[in-house]
Records
---
Amino acid sequence: MHIYANPTRFLALAKWLMPLCFWSGLSLALGAMAWGLFFVPPDRLMGETVRILFIHVPAAWLGMGGWTGIAISSAMLLIWKHPLAAIAARAIALPGMVFCAVCLATGSIWGRPTWGTWWEWDGRLTSMLVLLFLYAGYIALTQAASREGTTPKIAAIFGLVGAVNVPIINRSVVWWNSLHQPPSITMGKSAIDAAYLTPLLVAVIGFSLLFGGIVLMRMRALIADAQVEARLRRRALDDDVPLAGAAAVMEQA
Amino acid sequence: MREELAQWDFVALAYGVGLVALAVLALWAWRTMVNAEARRDAMRRR
């Protein structure tokens, strides 16, 4: 992994990996959604609304997975000072926030016909909303660091501390009473019928690849921005050298 | 009393919200990448 801490080497990898992840992810995600929409039978209790599963669960998985990625990149930034770790964490933040928002929105839409309410302040929904606010805070911190041209150390610490919320979201339905159902998929076991489980797994893989493709796009954009900024700074320094020389001559005179 | 709701409306709304959000995110990410790399390449050529 340390090999790819070099932006040039990473860009060579990202150039072919990004379209591969994006297009394969998009095909799988769209295929799984069409499968879920048109070929899956309605559920005995939830009826047709069970189809929301194929967009809600991958969005929830990537909302939490995104923050886990931020925490890992933040640790790499703080421990090894990898130049790409800060860029990776920054690149994950916005897609992660969008997936978290999609999870909340689709969950709320699903809640109305199944629970009879759009929103309930229970452990799962509240901790997921906290994750959305954490993403917003993280984006604000990284943008502030980028404006000042400093290493986003505070954002990295925030990314690590915020990771505490991920297991809280995961265990919230076990720890507290909730309208949300308990975990259907645990280590090696699943309470979901194969008719739903197979397209759900395809959707999770597809959306994960799509997420990876989007994160790679963001990383390429952030690296290009950093290269432009570095070149502009170098040019400004080069322009300053004759001026500094002239100032020295003036002083001697 | 059980409230009767058109379930497909909620399914369509959820898929609509998800697809629009993903399309906007993907297009924005692609556009910012293309613009940033074009800016960098133009600066290299200068």
Note: The CA atoms of residues 5 and 84 of chain A lie 6 Å apart.
---
Amino acid sequence: MSAKGKTRIGTRTGLKDNANEKMTSPPPTEKNDGKGRSWIAAGVLIAVVAAAVAISAREFVAMWEDPPIYPGPGITEQFMLSSIAPELAGSAADTEVYVLDGDSPGGTLLILGGTHPNEPASSLTAITIIENAVVNEGRLLVIPRANHSAFTCTDPQEGAPQTYVIETPGGDRLFRYGSRATNPIDQWPDPVIYVGSSGQALAGAEVRNLNRSYPGDSGGYLTEKLAAAILDLIRTENVDLAIDLHEASPEYPVINAIVAHENALPLAVEAALFLEFEGIQIGVEASPINLRGLSHREWGDATDTLALLIESTNPAQGRLRGAINSELILEGADPYYIRAAGQGLLYVPFSDAGHPIEERVGRHLDTIAMLTEIYSSQHGDQPIRISGLPTLSDLSVRGLGTYLDPSIRETDHSPP
Amino acid sequence: MTFLYQAITAGVIAFAVWNLFRERRLAEQMGIALVLIPLLLRVLMIK
């Protein structure tokens, strides 16, 4: 209470009280001591704040560094997306494009990994392709970190780790676990309602979601610039078949599925049928015409490419899971999902075995292999034939780390 | 737009620091200090 306030109370209670209060008031030196103590505390707290900011900043800044990718025997060229879209140059959205040219001409396939960096099988599949695949006919373009900025942060309030480690014969290898959306330090603030370049109205935070930003806008938000650049890549490279790799939570109905633009539906249906023959159950979903802004819709509408999106099962991104940690990310086992499966709440089977990363990457690789095989049979003059890729059964037996061994890349280009 | 939001954040930091030194109660000062950490990380464009 201020001295002024005390005087008013004294006035109300009479002159005598006022006089007593004056007599009992602390001497000026004590007052100064109280103020001095609070200033000392403030100074100490400022120092603590500075230390906390410095320590946490170090961890956050470490996320800006990309873990290495080791180009395999099939890589013939590598360039940055900004070479097609100069507006991305120097920004966190600029990302690497790897090219694998075949010995003979054919069709062109684009594989997009890392649209959502909290779906690790997506970027791991793309990296496995870069480090192992050889293209015999046609051309393959791979973007392993499509939303590069989203690899530099994690989603708030999720408690997700910044990294996870895969054991390889050559030693442990670190990978980045990221966010569903562009890092807010690269694109901020979010609008209340995001009306995208497609005209679709969405919640404001979706302004940083690459797979809601198509067809993109080279003069718009950073994520829209990135979306426009990817679409430019599809146009300039005459991409015939474009595949966007994703994962979904077990309680999400579009899971273990191929989502296809209507132009690519016959291809997706035939691939799903043959995958079933091989024991891989996969659904086919038609891309909704009125759900705008997504890759499978906008790529197919804006270009002649056959646009597809593939989903595998990732319990780490669901709502029913326990804590997110490396085990959940890589082994995909979670007791709460087992309970949820018992109550019929999930769209995929869920047992003690979980859905390990080998299964998820293997499903993606087998689906890509089947899609290219069927595409090649349907387009005899523009085949896309890829070799060197592990299959689901290879991964189940040997583990994913066998195919991501950096020591092999440094010494020998032959597939393991 | 980003610069405008950075300026707003910097303004909030300035008020918070001013209150930190003006406040006499330690518990309140600690509360202000906790608020300062994310604000500083954002104004420095680190997080």
Note: Residues 215 and 298 of chain A are 6 Å apart (CA to CA).
---
Amino acid sequence: MNVQTFNARVATPTTRLVGAMAIASMAWVVLGGLFVTPKDVDQGDAVRIMYVHVPTAWVAYLAFIVTAVASACWLLSRKHSMGFDRVAGASAEVGVIFMAMTLLSGSLWGRITWGAFWAWDPRLTTTAFLLVTYIGYLAVRGLGGSLEQRARRSAVIALLAVLEIPLVHFSVLLWRSLHQNASVLSGDGDIKMDGSMLTTLLVGVIGFTCTFAWLVMHRQRVLAMQDAMEMTQLDAALRERANESSRLK
Amino acid sequence: MDHLGFIAAVYGSTFVVIVALVVRTVAQGRALASKVADKDKPWT
């Protein structure tokens, strides 16, 4: 007799390790960002927002790139493994939330430095457009159809949507913008930042990246279980229908 | 600290959202894991 077991565990040693790294890094960001790092010469204490704002923006970019890569893997692989599609979906969900957090923190930072919560500036406008695009991507994922149909149409959208990221990143160079240029990835290799500020920023990037990895790993497992339940329910409904029709005969 | 309200709002909103997301993900995972057979959970 085939006995089914139901283990309620979703975490694994890998996710626990990544989670612990995320918590340790986040604790550093809060302590370092609020109490250890010095004020900026121009911005004063407002620069402390950078330790949260930059890593959330980085994670949003990373999430949408992961969505595109996983989507390409789904389209190009022979077996069309649904695991790729679920990673794409999970990553986009996390990316949308981090992109919204980036806009919120940027808006509050803008109120201090520019005197306004929002300006129709190239960086802000393209970022908002990117957010709306990925909300649309998630809406398309929610449409009906088979798992393969969902994977195919969302993969095509993901591969088109990711092309917006260079536009957002280079918008400050392409157009006149209120938003400052890149401080760390400036290209000339000369980072004009205090050592403790740079360290806290890099720890923040690592911590938020670990948080993203943890969320995507768990979320894609949730999506896998939702898909499995849907298939089980579908199988049960088909069996019931078959039994019903055989009884009528 | 200057602009304390804005800085607290940024840190507070960011970490509250992350914690809420983590709690929701764990809760959803546990609820589903008790209903889905282990054969459909390759990580178990």
Note: Chain A has one domain: 15-36+46-179+195-248.
